[in-house]
UniProtKB/TrEMBL annotation:
Residues 12-99 form the NAD(P)H-quinone oxidoreductase subunit 2 N-terminal domain. NCBIfam families: NDH_I_N, PRK02504.1. It is found in: Cellular thylakoid membrane; Endomembrane system; Membrane. Residues 129-423 form the NADH:quinone oxidoreductase/Mrp antiporter transmembrane domain. It is a multi-pass membrane protein. Its EC number is 7.1.1.-. It comes from the Bacteria. NDH-1 shuttles electrons from an unknown electron donor, via FMN and iron-sulfur (Fe-S) centers, to quinones in the respiratory and/or the photosynthetic chain. The immediate electron acceptor for the enzyme in this species is believed to be plastoquinone. Couples the redox reaction to proton translocation, and thus conserves the redox energy in a proton gradient. Cyanobacterial NDH-1 also plays a role in inorganic carbon-concentration. This is NAD(P)H-quinone oxidoreductase subunit 2. The chain crosses the membrane at residues 15-35, 42-62, 82-102, 109-126, 132-152, 164-185, 197-224, 245-267, 279-298, 305-323, 329-353, 374-396, 408-429, 465-485. NDH-1 can be composed of about 15 different subunits; different subcomplexes with different compositions have been identified which probably have different functions. It is an enzyme of class 7 (translocase). The lineage of its organism: Bacteria, Bacillati, Cyanobacteriota, Cyanophyceae, Oscillatoriophycideae. It comes from Floridaenema evergladense BLCC-F167. The keyword RNA-binding does not apply.
Amino acid sequence: MSFAELAAQLNAGTILPESIVIATLIVVLMVDLIVGRTSTRWTPYLAVAGLLASVVALFYQWDITNPTSFLGGFNGDALSVVFRGIIALSAAVTILMSISYIEQSGTSLGEFVGILLTATIGGMFLSGANELVMIFISLETLSISSYLLTGYTKRDPRSNEAALKYLLIGASSTAIFLYGISLLYGLSGGETKLSAIAAGLAAGSGQSLALVIALVFAIAGIAFKISAVPFHQWTPDVYEGSPTPVVAFLSVGSKAAGFALAIRLMVTAFPLVSEQWHFIFTALAILSMVLGNVVALTQTSMKRLLAYSSIAQAGFVMLGLIAGTEAGYSSMVFYMLVYLFMNLCGFTCVILFSLRTGTDQISEYSGLYQKDPLLTLGLSLSLLSLGGIPPLAGFFGKLYLFWAGWQAGLYLLVLLGLITSVVSIYYYIRVVKMMVVKEPQEMSDAVKNYPAITWNLSGMRALQVGLVVTLIGTSLAGILSNPLFNLANGSVAKTKMLQSAVITSQVAEVNTQLSALNKD
């Protein structure tokens, strides 16, 4: 094989966005190593610029003619473009909100940014991974970086405890997932590409039980990454103990990568057991929506409340995956796009409040409107959007998910989603009411001692930019949601994998109806 033929098969231009992030990571590490602590004045902004450049590169790959690269190991189709963009944007906003937080913790900001960029690379590669080895390496890159970020504030015992719990549970889930895909490798006759695995499984016979075991183990690994019940045990403790910017990235970037993996792996590698994985994800969605929303009612810590909220949101997003229709997949993409803004806006407000008061207890937010109207507005809009109050972005996201589920015949699941959404509105509005309605004499001690609002401190200007950008995104994504709808629908329409899966599902449904008519 000549070099030109090899280069054509590798098609390395597909991973240009990831290459930009890798180059940014190298530059950040070199500058931090050579210049030292003084480099923290501009290395975070260099990292943000690299991530935004990566998003621009993704924009130009939207209509790429040959998305497959590295001999079929990576697929840069439209679906992966959107999920990679979500991960890169979540990392950029996380860096903006972390500057003041990490500096106040007394740890190195340059190393933090380097590890976060590594996690971003892992998540972006995972979103387009089309081969078992690449899936596992990308997943481990994301996971190990997440463990390091969770325990980054070494002087905080809660952070150390969270990192240890995350590492132990994460290592167990990784081992289970690895065993599942190793079974998949064996059952397919030694194939590692997802499409070749599906062909190998279709050619085999008498392997249904082993295939179901492989499916269950693979879903267990994915469910851990997206914080689905009953694989959610790590989420509340890790969210409460970790540095808050890390939690923000885990709740958006890591979850987006998990859902991208779930779609690609289930649709491409497990078409023979489609009914089984739909059943398992239905059970996960029911448990996540019920437990996430009910347990959130009793929380007193803002970060734990957002942790259970994140579990419940995963249950809502799984509705689109279970529907298995074009509208279902589009609704998943749309909801992750709006979730990016509303969740990061909420976490930015929580970081700002904790920096100024040193607490994240919900009771301490009492009367905040009288001292900090901007923070109150940002947190109120993000929480109301997460609850699905119109005309905010979260309302249209849930409406699209429920509509896609209803069209697919998931009536009970949609009704359960509507009921649990109403439950979630209670605990979101409880926080908003505490901030806005409280009388001056009912103001909490933390708000009474609230420092004078200034943005002149180091890193605070970046936090303000992050707050304003996510607040605008949360507000306008609902009112001007049409471009996001078009983006979500286009990402599914331009992805051959999903189109073929939808057609196969429709053909199977028609055949079922015809066989039922013949019996009658």
